[in-house]
Specification:
Number of domains: 2
Number of helices: 7
Mean pLDDT: 81
Number of strands: 12
Strand content: 25-35%
Order of helices and strands: HEHEHEEEEEEEHHHHEEE
Distance between the termini: 41 Å
Oligomer: single chain
């Protein structure tokens, strides 16, 4: 993996780094993103790497960088090979023969790769499955432009691994709605729309605070109206003004809350991973009737 460092570091970032301990690598994003494969980073890259459905494999994210996208993808494969060598205790000098599994000359949908290593005449093969990728086109402060590619792989831990069948969706449905129903903005945060979620939550807090302050001041002037009748007209005007402010804040809070619910239910979020259930295979034997009598063997999958 390639870490990018810059010479000028913000004092606050440096203090946070010191507080966390100098053993933590300090990585500062000094690059500008010109283009990306999708609007938001997928959940598996941002914060939610899938959990394997069985113990025959595990998930691994690799990163590659190059001037063109195809070479960046190939760099991901090379970094994956390095990871496999390290975790399977294979010599760094062993050269990997990487083969994409194909059916009748056509690459399979799951993109299974076989990493073969010749170790003292013995062939060691590790199977991996590529599920998804995300890339960004970056420009560095010195003007250098590169593609940075991230890929999600499943790595076999046993022979004949049962890789999960994954699908991806940007729809969250009731997952986001239920959260925003409880706390405004929570659904947006859950979907990866962080800026929108923070704005909604902050807006609701500000409007509720405005309601409380305006109502407190209105009540105060109503009380003064009773205590000081000679200033009745002045205090009444001020009480009416703060009542209007309170009502505006109530309307704004209600409108923002409704918008928060609609947005949480309808608007897409970052791409999330869905593990598909493995289809069961049923074997059935039943008599065959027709031109000739016999038994029929049937598979349902």
């Amino acid at each position: 993996m390639k870490l990018t460092f810059i010479r000028k570091i913000h004092p606050l970032s440096f203090m946070i780094w010191i507080a966390l301990g100098t053993s933590v690598p300090l990585r500062v994003c000094a690059q500008k993103v010109l283009e990306r494969s999708e609007k938001l980073r997928p959940a598996w890259l941002a914060n939610r790497t899938p959990t394997p459905g069985n113990g025959t494999f595990h998930y691994q994210i690799t990163e590659g960088e190059h001037r063109n996208l195809e070479d960046a993808r190939h760099s991901c494969l090379l970094n994956l090979s390095t990871y496999i060598k390290r975790t399977h205790h294979i010599s760094e000098q062993a050269v990997a023969q990487i083969a994409l599994q194909q059916d009748n000359g056509i690459a399979s949908e799951s993109e299974n790769y076989h990493f073969s290593y010749d170790i003292q005449g013995e062939q060691v093969t590790v199977t991996s499955c590529k599920y998804d990728e995300y890339w960004e086109y970056l420009v560095y402060p010195d003007g250098k432009r590169v593609y940075r590619c991230y890929a999600l792989y499943g790595i076999a831990d046993k022979a004949n691994p049962a890789f999960d069948r994954l699908s991806f969706s940007r729809k969250y449905g009731m997952r986001g709605f239920a959260r925003s129903l409880i706390v405004p903005g929570w659904g947006q945060l859950h979907k990866g729309n962080t800026t929108k979620g923070v704005c909604i939550l902050g807006g609701e807090v500000a409007l509720v605070a405005g309601i409380l302050v305006a109502e407190n001041l209105r009540s105060s002037y109503v009380k003064k109206m009773r205590e000081q009748p000679k200033h009745l007209e002045t205090y009444n005007t001020k009480a009416d003004n703060w009542e209007n402010v309170r009502n505006v804040c109530i309307g704004g809070a209600a409108a923002l809350y409704v918008y928060n619910l609609i947005d949480a239910l309808v608007v897409n979020g970052r791409k999330r991973t869905i593990r598909q259930k493995q289809k069961s295979v049923n074997l059935a034997v039943y008599p065959s009737m027709g031109d000739c009598n016999g038994m029929t063997l049937g598979f349902r999958f």
